Amino acid sequence: MIAVAVAQPGKARLSAHSGTTGAMAKVNQRDKGGKSAAKADKRGPADALAAEREAITHWLLDEARHMKRSRDVIEQLSERLVGAGVPLLRVMINIRTIHPEILSNAYRWNRGEAAMVLNRGHDLLNDPMYLESPFKVIHDGAGGIRRRLNDPQIELDFEVLRQLKGEGATDYLVVPLVFSDGTINAASFAADGPDGFATDQLALIYDVLPILSLILEVQATHRQAMTLLDTYIGHHAGERVLMGQIVRGSGETIHAVVAYSDLRGFTAMSAAKPRDEIIALLNDYFECMIDAVQNHGGQVLKLIGDGMLAIFPLGDAAFEPYVCRSALDAAADAERAIEALNIRRAEAGKPPVRFGFALHKGDVMYGNIGSPNRLDFTAIGEAVNCAARVEELSAQLGESIVVTEPVALASGRELKSLGSHKLRGFAVPQTLYTVAETDRLPRPGAPKA
User: Fold this and answer.
1) Is the pLDDT score of 326 beyond 70?
2) Across-strand partners of 417?
3) How many CB atoms lie within 10 A of CB 288?
4) Considering its fold, how many domains does the chain have in total?
5) Residues 6+ apart with CB under 8 A from 111
6) Domain at 295, CATH number
């Protein structure tokens, strides 16, 4: 049950709860200077509210649990609570997540508006607005906070309370949503009825919270799984894994442009530079490479030390010229990004970054490779090997970008020939090309092919 601990006059603070009826009776005890909500409650008959409770519970269990987006669940639940007579003005629910850039997803619903998602970065933990907020108190373990905003004797001890009162709110409640792994999330509810929340309305909110928490946890778990797979093996590979393509040796042969890049002189730099400087260098380098590839429709499959393997699936033959040109544009954009990086490094007194970026076109096996309990979803095949060997030659040829003849011909671009060259491990020489100077520089106003 919920126990009320009055830390200061006029403040009711709630502890962990396991029930609703007794909890609401105690939550609505007289606050200093406030009326008894139980006596002031003159809302609809109990049987009508019981029917609304049953309808909302049925909707959560039958329909809402199949929804894909938490935003839709929160929006429709809020509207149903309003329809049941709860004078909701605003609902805010904060869900912690696992993401390299996002700390939590905050869902905000205002009456009469569509719900919206606010992604909070990891710097939120140092933001004074969060540190001095009711949500911080909940995350620290409080069982709940309630403030009757229409009571002049109640101290408005959080900025959000003053803001909500200015918008016409009369009551405010924030409670924890605890997931099965112990993660503490937070949900707040603001009312603008003349007397704030009535006892039975608070009971209705508390009754639906456990089911809502389960639904949001399932959705959050799915998002986290997708985020982790996107981050570590790539979006398309991650989708295939989630769809069940996890059997060792399973996969398909696809036609693709293979991109292979490598940071030159990395071994020597690793031996000469401090660890943190090397990590910062790799992060800067890979940001240039990965952004360029993904911005042009490529899929980054693997980071191998200082190297990157990516593919641009060709699919329909009619789109082959477009995909090959996209791969060339990605290579040119990567080169421009590295040049911009080198300007910043020069200003900091650091040596320039040199790299190789090779493109080849062919068939690759795209699927699961590895041991029974440690698999890798990747691409293998002669086309991958060829791209890696071409990248090895790029330094000898004095070029950052080197392209094989199949990509050059399919793209329809005018590229600069580098002649025919023997590749390590391949019997047949390859005619190689590089991007023309006009394609290396930004062309203001010129549309990309």
Assistant:
1) yes
2) 433
3) 22
4) 2
5) 78, 82, 88, 89, 90
6) 3.30.70.1230
Q: Could you tell me what percent of the chain has a pLDDT over 90? A: 65
Q: Give the H/E segment covering residue 377.
A: strand 374-380
User: pTM to 2 decimals?
Assistant: 0.69
Q: How far apart are CA 346 and CA 288, in angstroms?
A: 17
Evaluate whether residue 315 is within a structural domain.
yes
Helix residue spans in 234-319 (DSSP H): 235-242, 266-272, 275-295
Counting DSSP H helices and E strands in the chain, the numbers are 15, 16
b/e map 158-192, b = 16+ CB within 10 Å? bebbeebbeeebbbbbbbbbbbeeebbbbbbbbbb
Domain that holds residue 394: 246-440
Task: Using the predicted structure, report yes or no on whether residue 349 has a pLDDT greater than 60.
Answer: yes
Cβ-proximal residues to 129 (8 Å cutoff; 6+ apart), any chain: 159
The single residue listed with the structure tokens 């590295």 is: 338
The answer to whether the CB of 240 falls within 8 A of the CB of 254 is: no
- State phi, psi for 378 to the nearest 5 degrees: -150, -175
Alpha-carbon gap, residue 38 to 47, rounded angstroms: 17
pLDDT at 145 over 90: yes
Mean pLDDT taken over the chain: 85
Sequence-distant (6+) residues with CB within 8 A of 190 are 88, 89, 90, 91, 164, 169, 171, 172, 173
Question: 138 and 217: one domain?
Answer: yes
Query: What is the bridge-based pairing of β-strands 401-404 and 355-371?
Result: parallel
The confidence score (pLDDT) of residue 445 equals: 40
Does 215 map to a domain? yes
Residues 285 and 218 in one domain: no
DSSP designation for 379: E
User: Residue 82 is which amino acid?
Assistant: V
Residues 226, 121 share a domain: yes
- On whether the CB atoms of residues 175 and 14 are closer than 8 A, the answer is yes
For residues 356 and 391, give the distance between their C-alpha atoms in angstroms, rounded to a whole number: 6
